[in-house]
Design a protein that fits this description.
alpha/beta; 4 domains; disordered C terminus; three-stranded mixed sheet; four-stranded parallel sheet
Length: 528
């Protein structure tokens, strides 16, 4: 420990977050007071000479719940044993509220550097340090925990009464300060809401979040930071409670005594429209998971195109300076020389062949039955199977949520963890319920096939022309089993060739054999 002739000392002052509200000057004077427990009293009592002062920025927390830096405290410890021999703080809580970890750290520094730490209740040079020190440091930390609970409890009470508990103001709102700081009023920022409503219209029309974000940029509408919108930031706007005129605290929508969400402002977008937008996003997300690293919506027939080597061909984007019909192509990543073909040219050839095949179907043939069966699988059980999966997941989440609620009531889950669980579970249940409610019923028959064929694949006014890309892909894959491409040119290893019809082989669906029917029945039984 420190020899008594080493009288150089540094003092450490810190104003807590709560004391910062009443003024740091008052708090500093109280810490320096000449009483026996104040810093001046400790300096006089131990006959120390103050050579340095470390004053932390006002409002800095020493709590173990805080992650903010305390540069003055770190500097004070760094110089202890070198520039001065004693570090003085009015109370342990001024120096640390992190518990046993800081006790061990201070103890190690004092032992290794022959230094000393003094407060109003403990001195590392005393016999009580090793026994009482850990307890005092832990008590300081526990005091912080209790204070934190009281603060959170007070904020929860304010939130339960519809009060303002701080945080950023939603971008779509204006805040109107009143005499009561805990109960301001809110109104919609109509300038912002106009653009959000425009975004909702465009999303319903089938545009992507990326396209809408670009639309905002083109019209000089920037986000709350004054920067360009990203698709992620825009999407988050449609998932925030503020768009429905609501707020949340600790992950939960703030509700009144009747259990219903408190409306702070009118809704920005109609709730039914919002449900449709969210459900559409869920569907697109599930579609984007098909294939291997390629967005299946970017093409109509990606899943059924194969190279002559037997490997599936992948879709790629070409040079943007090329004409639009030559910007995308299919290629085999394995073959050399390259086996690649322009996407739209290949798709037109396959589509024309598919419609010619459909036009030759007879109403009562086994082949027609096979096509209708394949078509129903493409259009509905995707959707119908997804409905069953989503419903089952919804039931499972509700069951698990119920079990976790019981654990929370028994005290096995703390408040913060429970709030996070509630938010995640409720968000997922909300999305699943919206998705299930919006899955359409099947509506396909032989007449649909003939309707598709009537005006050709690109005829104006045809059913085909009105379909989205992934629906067109479903139609083609209902009648076509496989497309095999062989357009290699030995003279050019990276050739991207136009697709000559004689070098594209199309395999159409065929009636199922008895064995295949039996296998299909067994597979369905397992799924259901």
């Amino acid at each position: 420990m420190t020899n008594m002739h080493k009288l150089r000392a540094a003092i450490y002052l810190r104003v807590s977050t709560e004391e910062h509200r009443e003024g740091e000057v008052r708090s500093y004077e109280r810490q320096r007071s000449g009483s026996a427990n104040g810093i001046n009293g400790l300096v006089e009592q131990h006959k120390l000479k103050v050579v340095h002062e470390f004053i932390e920025e006002d409002g800095t927390s020493a709590s173990r719940q805080s992650t903010n830096a305390r540069p003055q405290w770190e500097a004070a410890l760094a110089g202890l044993g070198y520039d001065y021999d004693v570090l003085v703080s009015e109370e342990i809580s001024r120096a640390s509220r992190k518990g046993i970890d800081d006790f061990q750290r201070i103890d190690k520094i004092c032992r290794e550097r022959d230094a000393r730490f003094i407060s109003s209740v403990i001195d590392t040079a005393s016999n009580e340090w090793s026994l009482v020190g850990p307890l005092l440091f832990e008590l300081a930390a526990r005091e912080t925990d209790q204070l934190s609970k009281r603060v959170k409890g007070g904020m929860s009470t304010i939130a339960a009464k519809g009060g303002w508990v701080g945080g950023p103001i939603p971008f779509m709102w204006n805040i109107n300060r009143t005499g009561d700081v805990n109960h301001p009023t809110f109104s919609l920022n109509e300038d912002v809401c106009y653009w959000i409503r425009q975004a909702a219209i465009k999303l319903l029309e089938g545009e992507s979040y990326h396209e809408v974000a670009q639309f905002f940029t083109d019209n000089d509408f920037m986000n709350h930071s004054g920067k360009r919108w990203s698709s992620k930031a825009l999407r988050s706007m449609f998932y925030k409670p503020a768009i429905l005129g609501q707020r949340q605290y600790k992950g939960n929508i703030i509700c009144g005594e009747d259990g219903k969400p408190i409306q702070y402002t009118p809704t920005v977008v109609d709730p039914d429209v919002l449900t449709q937008i969210r459900a559409n996003h869920i569907r697109k997300g599930s579609l984007n998971k098909e294939g291997s690293g390629v967005n299946p919506q970017a093409t109509r027939i990606l899943q059924i195109v194969e190279c002559c080597c037997g490997r599936k061909m992948v879709a790629s984007g070409g040079n943007k300076n090329e004409p639009r019909q030559r910007r995308s192509f299919y290629r085999c990543n394995l073959c050399t020389p390259s086996n690649a073909v322009y996407g739209e040219e290949l798709e037109d050839i396959v589509a024309l062949a598919a419609f010619q095949f459909i036009s030759q179907l007879e109403a009562d043939s086994d082949l027609t039955t096979a096509v209708l069966s394949a078509m129903a699988e493409r259009f509905t059980p995707g959707e119908q199977h997804r409905s069953k999966v989503a419903s089952a997941e919804l039931v499972e989440i509700k069951h698990r949520f119920s079990k976790l609620r019981r654990s929370y009531m028994l005290g096995e889950v703390d408040d913060e963890e429970w709030a996070e669980i509630q938010q995640v579970a409720k968000d997922r249940m909300w999305d699943l319920e919206a998705e299930v409610s919006l899955i359409p019923p099947p509506a396909l028959s032989l007449n649909d096939l003939w309707d598709f064929e009537e005006n050709g694949p690109i005829g104006e006014g045809s059913v085909w022309a009105s379909l989205s890309k992934h629906r067109k892909r479903d139609v083609l894959q209902s009648v076509i089993k496989k497309v095999i491409v062989d357009v290699k040119d030995p003279a050019k290893s990276r050739l991207v060739a136009s697709a000559p019809e004689g070098r594209v082989t199309i395999e159409f669906v065929q009636p199922q054999t008895k064995t295949e029917k039996a296998e299909k029945t067994n597979q369905l039984a397992e799924v259901l």
